[in-house]
Structure formats: structure tokens, C-alpha cells
Design a protein that fits this description.
Shape: globular
Helix content: 25-40%
CATH superfamily of the largest domain: Rhodanese-like domain
CATH architecture of the largest domain: 3-Layer(aba) Sandwich
Strand content: 15-25%
Number of strands: 14
CATH class of the largest domain: Alpha Beta
Radius of gyration: 18 Å
Number of domains: 2
Structural class: alpha/beta
Distance between the termini: 45 Å
Length: 265
């Protein structure tokens, strides 16, 4: 499945019996009380993140992920489209998690809820899913997510490169981090590729534009590890890489929240 689908594609397929539309919104925005018709609210912060972990947005264990996915009525044959209330933000994170669980039929909605509403397509009031359980089984691949030790090894490996999705100001440490008490700066030997450069008006730029951005910072033969503040916008870089045909990638789950805390002053 193409990792990115348009609002027109979704509108044309909205009544397909095996289609599952997931609302992955976490950022407050206009129209957050609305959802796309037939959508199911995911609950990224509480249902699909390990709330007992030390750092935010930590990937669930495979066992708990399967349970959460089944509770949303997701089956092995489900075609999943993920969106959020901003455009493309947290939806990329959910796309990446399902890919890590071995589910290939998953895509991000380009433009998200704002583009859908602007087009005048059908919406519902925000509501939780209350239908039947699914039979999703998954097959977790740990290579999709790097931990602290993996990244510690990667900074010494010339065949690997860490790309930071935060703003250049946060990367350079010229502005404070949003999280109180977290030091500023970046992981040694990493490079900056702000996720905002890959987007325009809430949508992903063209394949050609995204490919050019990656070529500016790295050769395609290196394994790319994506980092950000807490593992969310790093997945936008992962989405961009896939659109550009780059497959040898991983996301640093703890990202700067973990690294900056463990290497605090």
C-alpha cells in the first residue's frame, strides 16, 4: 500500500468493509471535536503508548499493542488509514507503529482532518469505538525502533546516521526545550533535518522534493535513524524516507527526551 493516500482516495473508498480509519490526534486544533465519518479514535497518548515507561510516547509491548488494536476492531485484513487534526503530525507515528507490527496495509492521510473538512467531506462527532473486537495478530520487528544503546553504538558507526526532526534552533541549542528541565543540544554526530521542511500546508511535499532534502544530508547507502523530541515527528522523517524510496531506517523511540535526560548537566 502507498504510505500516503489523498482525501479523494479515502472518500472514494470510505464504505469498503475492511477499511479502518484511525484518528491519531494528540495536538489541540480547530475542529478537534469532529472526526472523519466512520473513524475510530485511537488514543495515542494513553491507549497506544506505554504509560508506565519513563519517557513519553514509548512504543507498547507487542502483547499490549495487539490487545489495543483488537479493541479497535482491527483485523489482519484491515486496510488502515491514519489521520490527525493538524495535517500530518501524530498520524505518521501510528503508521510507523503498525508497520513495526508487520502490518503493511497502512497509510497516512495527506492533509489530515483539515484537508478533509475543507473539501466538505462527511464528518461525525468525536466518539470512541464500541464495535466488535478484531483478530489482529501482528509480527513485531524490533529493527523499526532503536533504544538508547542502539543509538550509542550508531554514533560511532560510519554506516549509520542519526537525523534530528526538531527545528534547527532546538538542534543547535539556541532555544530552550519545551520540556522543563531538559537540556538543549543534539546527539553527537547527528544532523538536522527538520520535519517541517518535508511539508507544505499540512501535506507532504512531492517525492522529488523530499528526495532532494535527504540527498542534501546523507548518502542513501547509510542506515538512517530518526530522532526528535519524543519519538513522534521522527516518524514524519520515516514517512518521507519511504516516499523517497529509502528503506533502511529506524526511529529512536526515546529521542531527545531520553538522550537529553540521561546526559543532563
Amino acid at each position: 500500500m502507498n504510505p500516503l493516500v489523498s482525501i479523494d482516495w479515502l472518500y472514494q473508498h470510505i464504505n469498503e468493509p475492511n477499511l479502518v480509519i484511525l484518528d491519531a490526534s494528540i495536538k489541540k486544533a480547530i475542529n478537534t471535536s469532529k472526526q472523519i465519518k466512520n473513524a475510530r479514535f485511537l488514543g495515542l497518548k494513553n491507549k497506544f503508548s506505554d504509560t508506565n515507561a519513563e519517557f513519553p510516547n514509548t512504543m507498547l509491548s507487542p502483547v499490549f499493542f495487539l490487545e489495543a488494536a483488537r479493541d479497535l476492531g482491527i483485523n489482519n485484513d484491515s486496510v488502515i488509514v491514519v489521520y490527525d487534526s493538524v495535517g500530518i503530525y501524530s498520524s505518521a507515528r501510528v503508521w510507523w507503529m503498525f508497520k513495526a507490527m508487520g502490518h503493511c496495509n497502512v497509510a497516512v492521510l495527506d492533509g489530515g482532518l483539515p484537508a478533509w473538512i475543507t473539501a466538505g467531506f462527511p464528518i461525525d462527532k468525536l466518539q470512541n469505538y464500541s464495535g466488535d473486537k478484531g483478530d489482529f495478530s501482528g509480527d513485531y520487528n524490533s529493527e523499526f525502533f532503536y533504544n538508547f544503546d542502539n543509538v550509542l553504538d550508531a554514533i560511532k558507526d560510519n554506516n549509520k546516521l542519526i537525523l534530528d526532526a526538531r527545528s534547527i534552533e532546538r538542534f543547535n541549542g539556541t532555544v530552550p526545550e519545551p520540556r522543563k528541565g531538559l537540556r538543549s543540544g543534539h546527539i553527537p554526530n547527528s544532523k538536522s533535518l527538520p520535519y517541517a521542511l518535508l511539508q507544505e500546508n499540512g501535506k507532504m511535499k512531492s517525492k522529488e522534493e523530499i528526495t532532494a532534502l535527504f540527498k542534501e544530508v546523507t548518502a542513501n547507502d547509510k542506515k538512517l535513524i530518526f530522532s526528535c523530541g519524543s519519538g513522534v515527528t521522527a516518524c514524519i522523517l520515516a514517512l518521507g524516507a519511504e516516499l523517497a524510496g529509502i528503506r533502511n531506517t529506524a526511529v529512536y523511540d526515546g529521542s531527545w527526551t531520553e538522550w537529553g535526560a540521561l546526559f543532563s548537566d
